[in-house]
Design a protein that fits this description.
The protein is α/β, with parallel strands linked by helices and 65 residues long. It is built from three helices and three strands; from the N terminus they run βαβαβα. The chain is globular and about 30 Å long.
Length: 65
């Protein structure tokens, strides 16, 4: 089973850049645009790794942690 990674960043170009690197390597990728979405996505998908921006609207990376 492929490792699952949750990318959380409000900048679309960062999510797309990371996704374009990770998917060809065989990783399952999920995305969120803020910490609140990340909490929900984490609960639903239980990723193996979370890559997260610190400064985001709604809920930042520190609040997520």
């Amino acid at each position: 089973m492929a490792k699952k990674i949750l990318i959380t960043d409000d900048a679309m170009f960062m999510r797309v850049s990371l996704r374009n690197i990770l998917i060809p390597e065989g990783y399952g990728v999920y995305e969120a645009t803020n910490g609140a979405e990340a909490v929900e996505s984490y609960a639903n998908h239980q990723p193996d790794l979370v890559i997260m921006d610190i400064t985001m609207p709604v809920m930042d990376g520190f609040e997520f942690i």
